[in-house]
Structures are given as C-alpha cells and as structure tokens.
Specification:
This protein is mainly beta. It has four helices and 17 strands. Strands 2, 5, 8, 9, 13, 14, 16 and 17 form an eight-stranded mixed beta sheet that branches. Strand 16 and strand 17 form a beta hairpin.
C-alpha cells in the first residue's frame, strides 16, 4: 500500500494548481456503467480541462486501438463527433472493460520560450528536467512525443477487475492494484516506476500533485469520488546528442 497519509492527498487536492492546464490525450466514456445490452462508446480527444472534450483526434493520427476484458471486446472508430473521435466497443461481457489508444509518435522542437511552459505542464523526474536545463542556450529542445490513453467501463457487473489489473504493453500506463480498489501502479516498460510524479484530476478539473511510492503505487484513498483521471509523464534524455523521449499517459476511471 502507498504509505503517504490520506490527509496529505486531501491537502494536495485542496492546494492543487486549480483547473487542469495541460493538454491531455484521453478517452472519455459516454457512460462509466452500462448494462451490456447496448454498444459502448467513447471519445478520443485532447482536452485542457478534464472531463470536457475539446479537440478531435484525427483517425489517421491514432494507432493501437484495443479493448480488453471478459468476452471478445473489439474497439473500432465510428467517426468524428463535435470535439472528439467516436469509438465503439462491441463483444464485451460482464466485468471491467479497458479501452486503450495511442497517438502516433511525432517529433517536436521546442524553442527557448516554450521550454518552461512544457515542463510546467508535464511534471517529470528531477534528473530528466535537469538534463533539459543543461542544454546549451538558447535552447532548442528536440523531443519525440508519444501519447497513450486508457479508460475503464463497468459492464453489467464490476466484480471481474482482471483486465484493469493487467498491463496492455505500452511504454507508460497505469494498472489497478490486485485486490485494492483505490490503489494503482504506474508501469514504465512493464516495470513499476517508483517515486515518480503523478497527477490526479477530479471531475471539476482540479489537478492534485501526487507521486508513486517505492513500489510504483499511488493510493487515492479518500480523494473525491466520481469521474477522475490519472496522468503521468516520463522524460528520457538521449544517451548522446539526439531527441529526448517524452511519454504521456492518461487513465480515466470512475471512482
């Protein structure tokens, strides 16, 4: 279990940086609980204030759309909607369904004036931030950006949580801790990412700054219930000259 006292989590929520300002790639279910008789729909969107969809993710920019859970769930694109890309899951049976998506990697060059803004949006490990700080000035920060999104939906009966507890194989993702409903594990390349910054965004868009423990776990404890989003960023400096690798991951759930 995460050993940080629950009162610190509540304090972080109370003193967090107001509404979310980061531009997050996320999957938003149309409903977090369904009876299993109708199609399950989600939107892939980029949003600056969870849980409000804002920008449509083009279909040709998405990759690795997949669904996991009881039955034979299949995730497919059905077309753009007002502020998101509409996705539909069919074939899911009773239990927790996990939908995942990724945006194709892209090269980005950040000029000196943009670097503080990006590092302000995405909290990364101190050593990685120091590597950016050490770049010769005026800096051009060269990055390969990869974005991953995950969401869960309860289909008819929420007792089978096994899909939420298993990794899906992407570079950075959250999974539910086995047998503990309020605890999640941040995995990087399949291994727990320890003592790493994590954000928790509530349904009002307030962003709390938390961190994983020495086992890569974060316990949400008494944090507010309802639709929530976990977010993490991992920045890997290059071995020599070259581009930094920036992984951004969201996990949308209903607590």
């Amino acid at each position: 279990m995460f050993e940080r006292p629950h009162r610190l989590i509540l304090l972080a929520l109370a003193m967090g940086a107001g509404t979310a300002s980061a531009h997050d790639f996320l999957l938003l279910p149309s409903a977090f609980r369904v009876d299993g008789t109708q199609p399950i729909t989600l939107q892939a969107t980029v949003a600056s204030s969870f849980p409000t969809p804002e920008i449509v993710v083009p279909a040709d920019r998405t990759e690795r759309l997949a669904a996991f859970g009881p039955g034979q769930p299949q995730l497919r694109i059905t077309g753009p909607v007002d502020k998101g890309l509409q996705l539909e899951v069919r074939g899911a049976q009773a239990g927790i369904l996990v939908a995942t998506a990724a945006i194709k990697p892209r090269d980005v060059d950040y000029a000196e004036d943009r670097i503080p803004l990006i590092l302000g949006e995405y909290r990364v490990a101190p050593a990685a931030a120091a590597a950016v700080e050490a770049l010769p000035r005026p800096r051009t920060w060269q990055v390969v950006s990869r974005r991953f999104a995950k969401a869960t939906v309860c289909v008819a009966d929420c007792r089978d949580r096994s899909a939420a507890e298993r990794p899906t194989g992407v570079a950075l993702e959250f999974v539910a801790a086995a047998g503990v409903s309020s605890t999640y594990i941040l995995l990087a390349d399949g291994l727990p990412l320890v003592n790493h910054p994590v954000d928790l965004v509530d349904r009002q868009g307030h962003r709390a700054h938390l961190a994983t423990d020495e086992k890569g776990k974060v316990d949400l404890g008494e944090a507010p219930r309802g639709p929530s989003m976990l977010f993490a960023a991992r920045l890997q400096p290059p071995a020599g000259s070259g581009r930094f690798l920036l992984d951004l991951s969201t996990f949308v759930l209903d607590r």
